[in-house]
Write a structure and sequence with these properties.
about 250 residues, 8 helices, binds iron/sulfur cluster
Length: about 250
């Protein structure tokens, strides 16, 4: 089996614990307005690799990854479920820490054969980085082109199976920075028992140039980058709401 890979980063430091071999999978069904990797969207592009080739690349610098491992990101890595399953099964045979950075959009709770594969994939996965783009259903649709139903169901599934999760949330001025949304996000996260970390990131405009290069209009043209202090404030609101939810308040 061969997977379609957009690119590889040999020394990733922001996609999971330690120094990581980060594999950017090609293809994503979402269309997040602030996506800074629009070149990963088309599932037909990228370079084909076998799982063995990727593991061999990892092994070349294995000593660097002592506290890290492999992260599958993208694009949406779970779009290539069969390939990811093969890759992580092989990685676990070599005792490599495995992490998936996903939006959860491919989750199909009522599809038995999908769930069988997903359960198997989870048995080879140590950590999930789950992006929750917008807690409000309409806001999510507007921001990403999709409902957040599957994403929130995926989060609940991960809770049921006890899989450790780091949640990531990008705060965009005028879109996701309202306290109403931040509180609702906190209540949702507070209802889960498996969340180990929360990363709240300020929206930045560095992706805009890629849209120019691809000849696509930038959807958030005119929206300013969020100051770091605003992201910190948003994080405090979310954390307070998580705490209140856990205390039953
Ligand atoms: S899920 Fe990620 S790769 Fe896909 S459109 Fe959104 S930000 Fe871009």
């Amino acid at each position: 089996m061969r997977g379609r890979i957009h690119s590889i980063e040999s020394f990733g430091t922001v996609d999971g614990p330690g120094i990581r071999f980060v594999i950017f999978f090609q293809g994503c069904p979402m269309r997040c307005q602030y996506c800074h990797n629009p070149d990963t969207w088309d599932p037909g592009l990228g370079t084909e690799y076998s799982a063995d080739e990727l593991i061999a690349e990892f092994e070349r610098n294995r000593s660097y990854y002592r506290t890290g491992g492999i992260t599958a990101t993208g694009g949406e890595p779970m779009l290539q479920l069969d390939f990811l399953l093969e890759l992580f099964e092989k990685a676990k045979q070599k005792n490599i820490h495995t992490c998936i950075d996903t939006s959860g959009i491919t989750f199909q709770e009522t599809n038995a054969s999908y769930m069988e594969k997903l359960d198997k994939l989870m048995s080879f996965t140590d950590l999930i980085l789950l992006d929750i783009k917008h807690i409000d259903p309409d806001g999510h649709k507007k921001l990403t082109g999709h409902s957040n139903n599957r994403i929130l169901s995926f989060a609940r599934y991960l809770d049921r199976i006890g899989k450790p999760v780091w949640i990531r949330h990008v705060v965009v001025s005028g879109i996701t920075d309202h306290d109403e949304y931040l509180n609702a996000l906190g209540r949702f996260i507070g209802s889960l028992g498996n969340v180990k970390a929360l990363d709240v990131l300020p929206y930045h405009t560095m992706g805009a140039v890629k849209y120019q290069n691809l000849g696509i209009p930038y959807p958030l043209e005119g929206v300013e980058a969020l100051p770091k202090e605003e992201a910190l404030r948003a994080k405090k609101v979310i954390l307070r709401s998580i705490k209140e939810t856990r205390q039953g308040g």
